[in-house]
Inverse folding.
């Protein structure tokens, strides 16, 4: 093998250098593993760690796979782009929405609404507004004040008095940390901070204070991720422990699991799910420890036309939700 | 826009004890006016946010035509 190494020379050429054809086959077979070995032992640059994921998105892979937007009824969304940055959206929904009730029975209210929305998406400024037929407005603003400081505003305004909500967030992004300050209505103040400890591990903490109810809380979170898996854990003083684990089995398939424990209500929930991202469709399914099965399919019929099917079955509570819909536009 | 932060309806409670003390009346006036300003800001945002986005969008480059707002094509 010594002669083939000397043929390769100092910068290993991917193609064999001019050598007789029979031995070039041997060279081509010998070269690829040599390059892989060179890539493996990377030195960790402890002063140059990557920027961590924002604190509120720490469980985002698990949430994307396990909590799709399940609905019951008909849903139709149409997004029309007028410009690269400006688009209007029209959305119709007819079906039942669940209303939280005190008893264990689910309370469903048949609703129908039309929602008009306008989006303006610029790299530095994002404005998203949605208004419903009953007069509710959902507004989101994201503005980059400087390279590292971002201001976000989130508001839901209603016609009924005292039901509106608003929240201001100020995010500061450092080289290997992120911090956020939140101010909301009802005198809500919160802050969180997340820091990269190693190229794969980041730890974060958050505190909040509710003025009107004089409640405060503190929480800690950790996230460990490699190229193929993400594991997160969150503990809060409100008595909630949440763990999640997502494993990317292949380019198209990932499996996710999630565990949540609420100490105050002694409530434990665990769920397992899969996420298939195929060329023409995306299929997500999950099963819960409460005996709930759910599935969500988005099928691409054509360029920009998606067909959606949603199903959630709870045999214990006898609650069956099936929905279908269509999304047109990017 | 910072006035939107706390939509508490408790600003009216300050009116009851207005006549009693001079020192805190300034603070109470400020509280009343800020509540009034916040209510007006909420109404303005409620009616004006979507038109604001449409105006900003119609003036961005490349300028879209007016009929594109209404036609489904």
């Amino acid at each position: 093998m010594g002669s083939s190494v000397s043929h390769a020379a100092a910068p290993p050429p991917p193609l064999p250098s001019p050598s007789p054809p029979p031995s070039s086959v041997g060279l081509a077979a010998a070269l690829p593993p040599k390059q892989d070995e060179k890539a493996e032992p990377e030195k960790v640059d402890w002063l140059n760690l990557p920027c961590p994921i924002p604190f509120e998105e720490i469980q985002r892979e698990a949430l994307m796979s396990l909590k799709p937007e399940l609905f019951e009824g008909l849903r139709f969304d149409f997004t029309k782009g007028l410009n690269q940055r400006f688009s209007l959206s029209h959305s119709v929904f007819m079906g039942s929405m669940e209303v939280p009730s005190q008893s264990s029975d689910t309370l469903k209210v048949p609703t129908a609404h039309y929602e008009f929305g306008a989006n303006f998406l610029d790299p530095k400024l994002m404005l998203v507004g949605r208004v419903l037929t009953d007069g509710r407005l959902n507004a989101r603003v994201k503005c980059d004040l400087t390279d590292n400081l971002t201001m976000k505003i989130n508001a839901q305004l209603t016609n009924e008095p005292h039901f509106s909500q608003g929240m201001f967030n100020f995010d500061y992004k450092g080289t290997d940390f992120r911090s956020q300050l939140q101010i909301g209505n009802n005198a809500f103040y919160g802050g969180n901070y997340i820091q990269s400890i190693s190229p794969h591990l980041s730890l974060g903490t958050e505190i909040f204070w509710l003025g009107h109810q004089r409640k405060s809380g503190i929480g800690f979170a950790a996230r460990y991720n490699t190229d193929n898996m993400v594991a997160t854990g969150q503990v809060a003083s409100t008595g909630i422990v949440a763990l999640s684990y997502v494993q990317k089995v292949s380019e198209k398939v990932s499996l996710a699991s999630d565990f949540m424990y609420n100490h105050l209500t002694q409530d434990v929930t665990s769920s397992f799910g899969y996420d298939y991202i195929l060329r023409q469709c995306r299929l997500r399914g999950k099963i819960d420890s409460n005996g709930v099965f759910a599935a969500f399919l988005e099928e691409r019929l054509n360029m920009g036309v998606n067909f959606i099917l949603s199903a959630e079955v709870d045999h214990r509570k006898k609650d069956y939700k099936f929905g279908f819909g269509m999304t047109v536009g990017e | 826009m910072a006035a939107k932060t706390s939509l508490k309806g408790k600003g009216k409670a300050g009116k009851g004890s207005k006549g009693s003390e001079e020192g805190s009346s300034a603070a109470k006036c400020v509280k009343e006016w800020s509540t009034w300003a916040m209510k007006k800001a909420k109404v303005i945002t409620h009616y004006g946010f979507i038109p604001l986005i449409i105006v900003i969008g119609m003036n961005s480059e490349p300028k879209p035509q007016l009929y594109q707002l209404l036609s489904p094509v």
